[in-house]
Structure formats: C-alpha cells, structure tokens
C-alpha cells in the first residue's frame, strides 16, 4: 500500500426531494480518501448512506453537490473513465443461469468494450478458482462459486478498484472464510478493495482502515487498530479463592457487571485504572485469583458508541 489516493471525495452531498417539500439528506458533506492497495471498510447501520454513496460512484445516482475523483478522473468531467476504473460486486446474485462462467465473462468484457485480444478471461477464472467450472452452467454452481463469479464479472475490464457490497451477507462461516481468502488474493495482486459489511468481525479481520457513516455523515475514519484503541472500557473476568462483596467505585471507574459465588465480571476505564491495581486490591484482602481473563473490546464496541452519540 502506498499514499497515492485512488478515490478522493470532497464535500459530497445527496439530497432526495420527496413529494411536497420534504427533503432527505442521504449524504451530508462527506469527505474521505482511499489509498492505493488498501482494503478500506465502509460501515454504517441501515439507511446510513452507504448504498447511495456506491450508486453515485457507479453512475446510478446523481450527486447534489461535492467533488468525486476516482483514479485521477473527475466524476463530473470524465464519468466514463470513472466507471471504467471501478468494478462493483453487488450484494444480489445477478447471473444468467444458462451462461457458463467463461461465456458470462466474455459477454461482460464485450459490454465494457474490451477487445478480444485484451481479454483475460482465463486469468480471472483461475484467480477466483473457477477454472474447473469454466464451461458449466451458472445454475449448477454452488452458492460460493456464484459469489466468486460475481467478483469475476467485476474484474473483466481490469479496474484498479473493486467495491464489494456486503459480499458475505447470508453465507455460512466456511464460505465467508473462503471469500475472505479470495479478497486477500485480489488485494495482493494490487487491487484496491472497498468493502461494505454488516459483520464487524469481518471488517476488523480484513480492513486496513475503516470509515463509519451514520445518517449520511462521517463519524469516524481511522486505521482499524486506532479505532479499537478508542475503546475506553476493559472487561476482566475473575475466579477467586473465596467470595467477596464489592461495590461499584471501590476503585476508580471500577464497576461490577456480574457476581456469582466466587466468580465476577468487572469493567474499568483502562486510562484511569490498571489491572495491577485490581490484583493488588484482592491481594490485600488475602483473596487469591485462581483464574483471570481480560477483554479489550472490539470494533463492535466502537461502532455502537459512535452511532449512539
């Protein structure tokens, strides 16, 4: 990954005007940049504006205001070049059941105006592990193969940016991991990935940086690591040599979440209290800690705190 910006969005707005005088601000002054070679996560609850944003990039929705530059092309001045620079993999499976993967990719390449001598159909089929099914009807492919074929369709014109819209929605854990591997493989080959997902563990596992939008506004944009560092509270689970009755605030920011017999779960703000102080507290009470586990929180905690602010 380098610092070249493959996508730059400045003061982007989209207002939908409903019947009468009602207006809906789907996107409000959105500013973000995506670097070449990164896996960039775009997160937000339903109705946050993610789909509107993707549809603007795809040329399906006309923005109200703002500037969009993709691979150096301005959306207003060079819309065709912008579309040629992006491959979009929609959430819905949209395949002709009687086309084979090879025929489908050849047809898609023709739609993009790719000359026969410039097509890389075999390379793409191998890249998404469908070379063995190249001549099979699409209707006979498994769910995972169909998902990979959707990714292959988006690659026929060799775009430098791929947008994956909820690529693992409704699939099982094994298939999800298989798709993750394919996405990582594409990224290693130099393709920049923009990923929208409802699975926060997926974003945490896959993404270099993450933007979180809510009600059309950007509420966070940082590396995945830095976003997780923003979690203030830490959880500690303890199994003690004997039961003890403690209450909230006995140590700075310490709260009792659950307490049963000689086991308890506590939370505390890691910037104001450390685990050593908690251990010392029990030692002074002559209580041994038999077992202990801590939880630093995850991206879900960040997400919930940000969208609830």
Structure description:
Helices cover 30% and strands 30% of the residues. It has 309 residues and is α/β, with parallel strands linked by helices. Among the domains are: 1-84 and 203-229, Rossmann fold (3-Layer(aba) Sandwich); 231-307, Alpha-Beta Plaits, CATH 3.30.70. It has ten helices and 14 strands. A six-stranded mixed beta sheet has the order 6-7-8-3-9-10, sandwiched between helices. Strand 12 and strand 13 (263-269) form a beta hairpin. It has helices spanning 50-58, 79-84, 101-111, 121-127, 143-153, 173-188, 200-206, 224-229, 275-284, 299-307; strands at residues 5-17, 23-35, 39-43, 65-70, 73-74, 86-89, 161-165, 192-196, 209-214, 217-223, 233-240, 255-260, 263-269, 289-295. The radius of gyration is 24 Å and the shape is elongated.
Provide a concise account of the structure shown.
By secondary structure, the protein is of the alpha/beta class. It has helices spanning 50-58, 79-84, 101-111, 121-127, 143-153, 173-188, 200-206, 224-229, 275-284, 299-307; strands at residues 5-17, 23-35, 39-43, 65-70, 73-74, 86-89, 161-165, 192-196, 209-214, 217-223, 233-240, 255-260, 263-269, 289-295.
